């Protein structure tokens, strides 16, 4: 059996597995809760609680991915993960998010559910292929092949950003100031020529249905968004999945979360999440 203390000791790991697989805070929390309900009913001794709990959460997440496949195919506009938003430099909370950038979660989304499970368990949480094979009820050789394929896919698409955190924060803050000041020229100076911006409204709020590419196009798009009339808009500096970002509240409620990637002092990627369903887990600042 697994008692409450043992489960709580592994909760962070379990949420991390579920969140990386599902890209949804709410779904990850539901999976962790379902795992507790299942494990609390086990009456026999559990020799390896971490492995047993990881197996339970992984299979619950795989089931959710299967049922969510049709919904993802019908999604309106670009799909982005639900953001993990924390106050800047909150050590314990940032530990959970620092290895889960939005860019990496988008890469994981491009893997098959099985590839995602193997990659997360092996490359992120350090389980052996033998342990993973047992969790997934598959042969070890087959799991190794899946893991090798997943790792190659991720390495080919892995975002490569080496800018220190203070540089990312400075560039992000300068760009925000330029946006709020309507300084289009300064905005374009801070954007890489081939910058891409994704905005996720899920068909529920206004957002671009296709990625915006190029410094001028992205700058004009963001300037038009900021120019929209809003009720008591306030911008809050936050960390978004361990990266400097911002939270926009309108009338006291979370409206938009944005995060930028920086390379050579310029912004190369911007991800904007506006779908209300993906922000409902955020408390009002």
From TrEMBL:
Xref: Gene3D superfamilies: 1.10.1740.10, 3.10.450.50, Winged helix-like DNA-binding domain superfamily/Winged helix DNA-binding domain
InterPro entries recorded: ECF_Sigma-70_Domain, NTF2-like_dom_sf, RNA_pol_sigma-70_dom, RNA_pol_sigma-70_ECF, RNA_pol_sigma70_r2, RNA_pol_sigma70_r4_t2, RNA_pol_sigma_r2, RNA_pol_sigma_r3/r4-like
Keywords for this protein: Sigma factor, Transcription, Transcription regulation
An individual GO BP term: DNA-templated transcription initiation
Every SnoaL-like domain range: 173-269
Pfam families per the UniProt record, alphabetical: Sigma70_r2, Sigma70_r4_2, SnoaL_2
Residue ranges of domain RNA polymerase sigma-70 region in the record: 7-69
Record keyword Transcription regulation present: yes
Stretches assigned to the RNA polymerase sigma factor 70 region 4 type domain: 103-153
SUPFAM superfamilies recorded: NTF2-like, Sigma2 domain of RNA polymerase sigma factors, Sigma3 and sigma4 domains of RNA polymerase sigma factors
An example Gene Ontology molecular-function term: DNA binding
Family: Belongs to the sigma-70 factor family. ECF subfamily.
PANTHER family, per the entry: ECF RNA POLYMERASE SIGMA FACTOR SIGJ, SIGMA 19 FACTOR
Assembly mode: Interacts transiently with the RNA polymerase catalytic core formed by RpoA, RpoB, RpoC and RpoZ (2 alpha, 1 beta, 1 beta' and 1 omega subunit) to form the RNA polymerase holoenzyme that can initiate transcription.
Record's protein name: RNA polymerase sigma-70 factor (ECF subfamily)
């Amino acid at each position: 059996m697994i008692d409450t203390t043992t489960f709580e000791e592994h909760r962070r790991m379990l949420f991390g597995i579920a969140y990386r697989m599902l890209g949804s805070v709410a779904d990850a929390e539901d999976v962790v809760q379902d795992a507790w309900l299942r494990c609390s009913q086990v009456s026999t001794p559990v020799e390896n609680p971490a492995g047993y709990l990881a197996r339970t959460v992984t299979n619950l997440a795989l089931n959710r991915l299967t049922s969510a496949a049709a919904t993802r195919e019908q999604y309106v506009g670009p799909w982005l993960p639900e953001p993990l938003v924390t106050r800047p430099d909150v050590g314990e909370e940032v530990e959970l998010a620092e290895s889960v950038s939005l860019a990496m979660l988008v890469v994981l989304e491009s893997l098959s559910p099985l590839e995602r499970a193997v990659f997360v368990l092996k490359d992120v949480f350090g389980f052996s292929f033998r342990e993973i094979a047992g969790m997934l009820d598959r042969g070890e050789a087959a799991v190794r092949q899946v893991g090798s394929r997943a790792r190659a896919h991720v390495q080919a698409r892995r975002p490569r950003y080496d800018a220190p955190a203070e540089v990312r924060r400075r560039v992000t803050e300068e760009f925000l100031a330029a946006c709020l000041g309507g300084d289009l020229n300064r905005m374009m100076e801070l954007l890489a020529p081939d910058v891409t911006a994704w905005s996720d409204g899920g068909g529920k709020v206004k957002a671009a249905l296709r990625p915006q590419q190029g410094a001028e196009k992205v700058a004009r798009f963001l300037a038009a968004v900021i120019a929209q009339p809003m009720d008591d808009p306030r911008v809050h500096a936050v960390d978004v999945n361990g990266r400097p970002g911002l939270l926009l509240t309108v009338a006291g409620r979370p409206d938009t979360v944005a995060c930028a990637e920086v390379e050579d002092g310029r912004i190369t990627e911007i991800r904007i999440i506006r779908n209300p369903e993906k922000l409902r887990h955020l408390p009002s600042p």
